[in-house]
Amino acid sequence: MRPAKALAKSLERVVPIGTLAERTGVKVETIRYYEQVGLLPEPERSEGNQRRYGRAHVERLAFIKHGRDLGFAVESIRTLLRLSDTPGMACDEAHAIAAEHLEEVRDKIARLRSLEAELARIATVCSGGVAASDCAVIEALADHSHCEHHGH
Amino acid sequence: MRPAKALAKSLERVVPIGTLAERTGVKVETIRYYEQVGLLPEPERSEGNQRRYGRAHVERLAFIKHGRDLGFAVESIRTLLRLSDTPGMACDEAHAIAAEHLEEVRDKIARLRSLEAELARIATVCSGGVAASDCAVIEALADHSHCEHHGH
DNA sequence: CTACAACCTCTAGCCACTACAGCTTCAAGA
DNA sequence: TCTTGAAGCTGTAGTGGCTAGAGGTTGTAG
Fold this sequence. Notes:
The structure is a homodimer. By secondary structure, chain A is mostly helical. Chain A has seven helices and two strands; from the N terminus they run H-H-H-E-E-H-H-H-H. The first copy, chain A, has two domains: 94 residues, Multidrug-efflux Transporter Regulator, Chain: A, Domain 2 (Orthogonal Bundle); 52 residues. In chain A, a hairpin with a 5-residue loop joins strand 1 and strand 2. The longest helix of chain A is centred in the last third of the chain and has 37 residues. Chain A starts with a helix and ends in a 10-residue tail after the last helix. The N terminus of chain A is likely disordered. At the A-B interface, helix 2, helix 4, helix 5, helix 6 and helix 7 of A face helix 2, helix 4, helix 5, helix 6 and helix 7 of B. Chain A binds a DNA duplex through helix 3.
């Protein structure tokens, strides 16, 4: 009694690229791209030259996906993968990468928050239906009052 | 008594691209790029084919710069410029663009904040110097516990 | 055996610049 | 007036991280 085919497929040891894509949530084209830039090792091929992935590939691609979801640059992920392949792992380095990225994220948040405040100010004036002859949004962009005091 | 040359230069009615760059804080290459994509109109040229900008260009480029600093896409700025050129200004449309952008910024902030929380969690575990045999950063990326419950 | 989905490679496109190569022009000092 | 060197010019290619499409081949269910 061998399992039905549909079941077999989901348990299969070796899968084509579409199945890998489904399993990891990474698009087929993106998988090929990761291979091209050397993030994902080249898999075996079928007789007809189609990619066949094993368990190790699934794991590695999931790692990459998690890293990207957390906003790590592909270069950082490359390093993290290398570290994770290292037997005596250099946790320091991994931590440094994560800490640096965290700082970048915090910087980005800070910048976006001041942007948000500025935009909210502009948009509110405008939506308030003030009887301005000119539009507050356009005015804000044309206005130099913000930049004169820092140089140009 | 004509003004000294240095002074004259800063008051000049017509300026080369480098001076425009200095005045607006936009790089020379970026100015040429804006011209190429039709954001900034083609200026007059000197006999030797060099660009010569007038007051209107300075104003327009400052408008663009302010828009970019606020994170507006070049396409949005194109529309906003068109609106600002329109005599009876369509404030509604300008407001809609600003409001939409504000929403995008807020979305981005929200996404970055949850990223920040996740990264902080990961990085803290690791920096705590816990006697883990494996690195928490690497573990977090290799771990499936976060993604299993939403499908892959 | 046939139909058709899934796969293949290769190339170009996205955004908003940035950088370079290889040239010409401008302007200040001697 | 001549020389030097900064600043200008055009055109092309590269950045990151994919995404889309053309035009062909392979795998597999019925």
